[in-house]
Amino acid sequence: MFNFDYFTPTKVAFGRNTVSRTAGLIREFGGKKVLVHYGSGSVIRSGLLKKVTDLLDEAGIPYVTLGGAVPNPHLSLVYEGIALCKKENVDFLLAVGGGSAIDSAKAIGYGVANEGDVWDFYDYKRKASGCLPLGVILTIAATGSEMSDSSVITKEEGLVKRGYSSDHGRPKFAIMDPELTMTLPDYQTACGCTDIMMHTMERYFTNGGNMEITDAIAEGLLRTVMANAEKLKKDPKDFNARAEVMWAGSLSHNGLTGCGNDGGDWMTHKLEHELGGLYDVAHGAGLAAIWGSWARYVYKNCLPRFRKFALNVMQVEPASSDEDTALRGIEALEDFFRRVGMPTSLRELGVNASEDDLSLMAHKCAVGVNGAMGSARLLREEDMLAIFKASV
Ligand code: NZQ
Ligand code: ZN
């Protein structure tokens, strides 16, 4: 076991009709003027945005709105949000939507609370010393950004997608009503379930420090997400399945499933961020498309963990060798991805990558991780390229 800090300051309001508590929660955390930040329009179509602004009007809390946070949210909108907040003296951010709206709001919060160019944080040039307080109304269970310390932004110039992590960016509160996720297209539901699983798997496939208690939580979470993803495939209106997945999403990325380990592997995410940056694919689908190739490339260097995963999570029959058992686990997870409509290759993802593009992504990825990264197996640029090539 390694020493660890576990810091989850986000107040969670979970369940039916919790949106009605929005104004009270903003007040509780000191908000006097709010920027309501959202995505490309799903919250307008569902009526949620109107409901939220009505609640603010009733409570007498002034606000401005800014929509347009696209999947793989753009830096240019972040700059726009920072300028708007400064002009309007906004002191509280309310993200209504998914990871993209939340991450964009976090970036706006860093930009308002710190001097200089906010991209510096995403470019690892310096660290934020604060962030505007942020609340969340979550509409898709996926990234865990509602409780996480991370924010992922894409700089349009050069299509560079980078994450920045800081405890300052953790939301003050998160309102999670599973019913809000019922309007999601099946594809986005499956993307979300994949992302949730991957946040725990990145922490699971490591070569150091693992604790039984953390493993038990992680394995239970993964089995729960898979079972409920299959239920949602059959019945997208299953409230309890929506609730299981939604809560799993938060627990998967608030640090809980990594306590005691060496910090996690994270290379599937790093590789996917290159796909998302270059081809603008949905994050969860990109992860599913690359994971099998990553797993086959690294499993021999992390065999006990892959064997444990195969037996305890995928619940396969043990094979005659540990290697074969590990491979059965990898295949079983890919079968699951296919059952819920996720891709297991770039082609199935709809990406027809040229050799040059694969090399470019491997290079950008290597630069982004400062040369090499990975716990299951340390990967350098040539390894990243080999994985991209295997995933075609
Ligand atoms: O933009 P709108 O119109 O709202 O539509 C969204 C979007 O098209 C739609 N949607 C969301 N809730 C809906 C809905 N449609 C109907 N009904 C609803 N209730 O779904 C699409 C996806 O939304 P988005 O916010 O982009 O999804 P997600 O939550 O998966 O966020 C993805 C982004 O988060 C980053 C990803 O890389 C990607 O940029 N990540 C953030 C992390 C973090 N902050 O901790 C960690 C992750 O690993 C990830 O990298
Ligand atoms: Zn993710």
Which helices and strands occur, and which strands form pairs?
Blueprint: E1 11-14, H1 22-28, E2 34-38, H2 42-45, H3 48-59, E3 63-66, H4 75-88, E4 92-97, H5 99-113, H6 119-122, E5 134-138, E6 150-155, E7 160-165, E8 173-176, H7 186-204, H8 212-234, H9 239-253, H10 267-279, H11 283-298, H12 303-313, H13 322-339, H14 346-349, H15 355-368, H16 381-390
Parallel strand pairs: 1-8, 2-3, 2-4, 4-5, 5-8
Antiparallel strand pairs: 6-7
Residues 39-43, 71-73, 97-101, 103, 139-140, 142-145, 148, 150-152, 180-181, 183-184, 188, 192, 195, 253, 269, 276, 283 line the site of 5,6-dihydroxy-NADP.
Rounded to the nearest angstrom, the radius of gyration is 20 Å
CATH arch. level architecture of the largest domain? Up-down Bundle
Number of strands: 8
- Classify the secondary structure makeup into a structural class: alpha/beta
CATH overall fold name of the largest domain: Dehydroquinate synthase-like, alpha domain
The number of domains is 2
Q: Show unreliable segments.
A: none
Helix percent reads 40-55%
Rounded to the nearest angstrom, the distance between the terminal CA atoms is: 37 Å
The share of residues in extended strands comes to: 5-15%
Question: Can you list the strand order of the major beta sheet?
Answer: 1-8-5-4-2-3
Task: Explain the overall architecture.
- With 392 residues, the protein is an alpha/beta fold.
- The protein has 2 domains: 170 residues, Rossmann fold; 208 residues, Up-down Bundle (Dehydroquinate synthase-like, alpha domain), CATH 1.20.1090.10.
- Helices cover 51% and strands 10% of the residues.
- It contains 16 helices and 8 strands.
- It has a 6-stranded parallel sheet, sandwiched between helices.
- Helix 11 crosses helix 16.
- It is globular, with a radius of gyration of 20 Å.
- The model has no long low-confidence stretch (mean pLDDT 97).
